[in-house]
Design brief:
Blueprint lengths: L3 H25 L3 E2 L3 E5 L9 H6 L1 H13 L6 H18 L2 H13 L3 H7 L2 H4 L1 E9 L5 E9 L3 H10 E8 L2 E9 L7 E4 L3 E7 L5 H12 L7 H9 L4 H10 L6 E6 L6 E6 L4 E6 L8 E4 L15 H11 L6 H7 L10 E8 L4 E7 L3
Parallel strand pairs: 2-5
Antiparallel strand pairs: 1-14, 3-4, 3-12, 4-13, 5-6, 6-7, 7-8, 8-9, 9-10, 10-11, 13-14
Length: 366
């Protein structure tokens, strides 16, 4: 057993390191940037909902396609093209209103519908993230996440430039909010204020092109849904418990980790998903010491690989902070501790559903 003095010293050191990491990065290249905010009017016909955003980001949406195509080896390009063409014909029925939203974007940008569908597979194939849900001693639930995206370098920096915060409204009132990328109509991070929130962490499954082919094939399952579109399906009307059931059991195009937070004590869970079934539900249990959960991109019951260990530094910082000191700023600092904050991090979000609080910033550091 470590002495209380040693543990206190480690706690203090971790908090100092977190603060230094932020301040050092800021001194060289500020880590935190404002994120553009837009409104999507759900009272409009789906075809028109995103067109004002597509007009602003038309060039960038085309560039997203170029980046995605660059990840596909020449020898399998014909296979991908064939699948994209098939999907372009098939998704109108399968994706419903989202197909119409994508068509509206495609027509504004001047690209085929199937290419916008391809853009909307982006999160299914190339994202590494860190998410946490935690409960304060007063019962308040906090939800935080870093979205790490791309392969670093130009692509990741480009994704930072197209990250947007979207407020979805009916009758002029916001019913849910999320962060996504221009051209992408799904929500990898979202909150229904006063009810629940969710962040999506990808399951790492090999090279990008293999994950893309897998997702394209998965999309041909008429019962399956893209993970971030399923979130939109239920974001407007579902309670926390209803959302847990849907995200836990609905067929998906790709395997995934759903990290969810609610408003009541104990309403925090990591759902480990296969395409057609849940594998595990990992719940907050503050009464027995489990006051926070951290998920990256690997099953929580096995150690992360040494080359991609964001889990242990995040756990160390959370333990050093302590449950009673859980706050927006302290959670943000933990998410800013390298390598939790890393060259792939595109944005950081903090959510408190019970307070209708949503803070999101573009990040650039390290």
């Amino acid at each position: 057993m470590k002495s209380h003095a040693v543990m206190a010293s480690k706690a203090f050191t971790m908090l100092v390191l977190a603060a230094v990491a932020v301040s050092c990065c800021a001194a060289l290249d500020p880590t935190t940037y404002p994120i553009p905010k837009y409104t999507v009017d759900l009272d409009l016909a789906p075809y028109y909902r995103w067109q004002h955003i597509a007009k602003v980001y038309s060039t960038e949406i085309k560039q997203t396609l170029k980046f995605m195509n660059s990840f596909i080896p020449a020898e399998i390009r014909p296979q991908v093209d064939s699948l994209v063409n098939d999907i372009g014909l098939a998704v109108q029925t399968q994706l419903g209103v989202y197909a119409s939203e994508m068509q509206g974007i495609a027509d504004v940008v001047g690209i085929p519908h199937g290419d916008v569908v391809l853009v909307n597979l982006l999160y299914e194939i190339t994202a590494k993230c860190t998410s946490t849900v935690a409960q304060h001693t007063d019962g308040t639930i906090y939800h935080g996440r870093n979205l790490d995206f791309g392969e670093g370098g130009a692509f990741t920096d480009f994704l930072r430039s197209i990250a947007i915060e979207v407020h979805f409204q009916r009758n002029g009132t916001t019913v849910y909010t999320g962060t996504t990328y221009s051209g992408y109509v799904g929500l990898p991070t979202a909150t229904r204020p006063g009810y629940w929130s969710v962040s999506v962490d990808e399951v790492v499954e090999g090279p990008i092109y293999a994950a893309l082919i897998s997702a394209l094939n998965g999309l041909m399952n008429p019962n399956a849904q893209l993970m971030t579109l399923l979130i939109r399906d239920i974001m407007e009307n579902s309670t926390f418990s209803e959302a847990v059931q849907t995200l836990g059991y609905h067929d998906l195009v790709s395997p995934v980790f759903f990290i969810m937070g609610g408003v009541q004590p104990g309403e925090g869970v990591v759902i480990t998903r296969a395409r057609n079934k849940p594998i595990d539900f990992w719940w907050l249990d503050a009464d027995h010491g489990l006051w926070y959960l951290v998920e990256t991109n690997y099953d929580h019951w096995v150690p992360p690989p040494e080359y991609d260990d964001r889990l242990d530094p995040m756990n160390d910082c959370m333990n050093a902070m302590g449950q009673a000191n859980l706050s927006v700023d302290n959670l943000y600092n933990c998410l800013s501790t390298p390598p939790v904050l890393n060259p792939l991090t595109t944005y950081t979000a903090i959510i408190i559903n019970s307070q209708s609080y949503y803070r999101c910033n573009v990040r650039r550091c390290c």
